[in-house]
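We now fix the convention by which a protein and its fold are recorded. The integers have meaning only within a learned vocabulary of local backbone shapes. A complete example follows; check for yourself that the lines match position by position.
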Amino acid sequence: MFRTAQPQTLSPRAALLFVNGFRALLLLVLFTLSLLPGSDGQSLIEGSRQFYAWSGIYLLLIGVWYLLREGKLGHTLQLTLAIAADIAMMVWLMAMNDGIHGGFGLLLLPYLAAAGLLSTGRYALFYAAIATLALFSYSGFEHWLGLARQFDLSYSALLASACFVTAIATWRLGRMARASEELAAQRGGEIANLNHLNELILQSQRDAVVVLDEDGHLRQFNLQAERYFNRLQRGQLLPELLPLVSRWRDDGSPALSTFVEHSARGRQLVGRLVPVPVPEGQMRGVVLFMRDMADMAEEAKRVKLAALGRLTANIAHEIRNPLSAISHAGDLLAEDETDPARQRLLRIVQDNARRINGMVEDVLTLGRRDRVRREPIELAPFVAQQLEHFSMSQPDAAGAVRCELADDCRLSFDRGHLAQILGNLLANAWRHGSRRPGSVRLQAGIAENHLILRVIDDGSGVAEADQARLFEPFFTTESAGSGLGLYIARELAEANGARLDYSPPGGVFRLICQLAHD
């Protein structure tokens, strides 16, 4: 997962090619000087034909070195041969131009410096020793021929010392440069790995995360933030977040602050604001961690469903079995009991047992909400059938429910789920209405390619303070209610791609369904 940055070093072949380019440039400069006359009318470089022969040989060596750059010779051997040839050529040039006094011996130093940078310590000393040997050999040859002048040996010794100093100094500098380069590469790899880790952490955040500078420009963001704001780019200005940035900037950079219900592109966001610590003098920044309130509500809903699922499993084993035993024992006692007081107590036991059993059935039904088998349903005959079943459970409601259904109403729904939803809404309307003929009405019509089924009662409706919690599980205003009826009805509706809501004023519940297509 983690990567180590590779140092961008100059390869040995590329380094030799660079030195070869220096040789070619030096030869061009020397050749140009040979064509220019000095103040005395003589050329700046002596040697005439001999110099041109030297130039031709040096040019040939440069060509050979260039051809050998990708050859089989090792880097050290190739460098050693090249530096030895350079030393010989520079001593020859020095001999053509007034010997050690001509100053051309100083041209040995750039080559030894390059060799020191490209080699290890002992090789740098070896190259300096070759140059020293060449200088003293030339001085000894001049002395043998009787051409040596006073102080030639001293000049040679000084130049040889300069060669050693140059080789050692450049070798130390090269070693320090390579160590610094390795350290920089190591630090670069660590920074790259840290950036990669930060990116993974940023993208794994469930919150939308954006990093803004003090002017409100976007510096960093994650995928969740892109879902909220769409097509984000670094450097982009987000006008929706400018009030938060301005408030943070004006409040003197608090360490941590929170914001509630900040509107951004149709979303209600909540979250916290964390300033980014920066050195003095640099532009400040701030990190925003945001969540959509709709997402939070959906997450809370999933948590409730998961809790209900666990509760369902426990209820099935822990409640139903002893409840069945209680009900059965109550039935047996009721057969033999003649005391009216005891009969009343047994009825209380049986009624509460049935109530608990009804709650268990409701919760178990909720656990089966994902088992949806949608089919086309003709609304009119289906409603007539459900009203008949409702009249059997509520005899005084027979003929009291008025139906106002549009023609050819067909919806796509799970038949069992729709029966449960409609039964729950009818029971709720009958319980809160006046229980007179026409006090409960069923209306159905088509609007905007959806079928809208309304269940209306003539009651006072749901209190405004209770409307927000109307579809919450276990919320009820009835002492005998379980608080699961409307919640389960909405869950079953959403499982079928429909929506159940309450439409004030009065008692009006709407079921908005998908039409069935032929």
